[in-house]
Amino acid sequence: MVAPLQFWFEFASTYSHVAALRIEAVAGARDVPFEWKPFLLGPIFRRQGWSDSPFNLYPARGRYMWRDVERLCDTYGLPFRRPSVFPRDSLLAARVACTGEGQVWLPEFVRRVFRANFAEDRDISDAAVIGDILGSIGQEDGPLIALATAAGSKQRLRRETEAAWDLGIFGAPTCVVGRELFWGHDRIDEALDWFLTKGGGSCPNT
User: Fold this and answer.
1) What's the pTM value of the predicted model, to 2 decimals?
2) Is residue 206 situated within a structural domain?
3) Domain-located, residue 118
4) 50, 156 contact by CB (below 8 A)
5) What is the number of structural domains in the chain?
6) Does 151 reside within a domain?
7) Model confidence over 88-143: pLDDT tens digits?
């Protein structure tokens, strides 16, 4: 069986916001199956010697990024408002997303968390905000948040982040097809092309 494309994303990532709100439609239009793969950029940045987002460490790069994201969201008709805090702590949201692997509610949860962070300027590290998002998609927030904050779920997110590093992922979003990496929201179409012409390949160990 051909392994699906993997879509690795980070809830604090501006370009993941752009990609996450688009990927289901563009992959669906080309009949390419994909998996949502939440992970944390913080540990990966630290391994690269960064104590903060490179968009904060390098102001010129940051100024470009904010304007670029504004243009992209305008082009694609996506909601966007620069958040008052960047990057926001995405730990809880990522843990909940990990527990939702394979669940029908996961894609809408992902999209609503991104909208909360990058269109509504809400604090996605707040359990009340995450609980409100879960409730808005018909899920009981209490049991899911309890599960997401249990030891097993914490370890699962650590494993996923380690798996991202082992794959060579250094930023988000990144699409993975077999062992091929496609970094950036602007590489989604290239990843889909590769999947359709080269095949998904064997599924990486994650």
Assistant:
1) 0.94
2) no
3) yes
4) no
5) 1
6) yes
7) 999 999 999 999 999 999 999 999 999 999 999 999 999 999 999 999 999 999 99
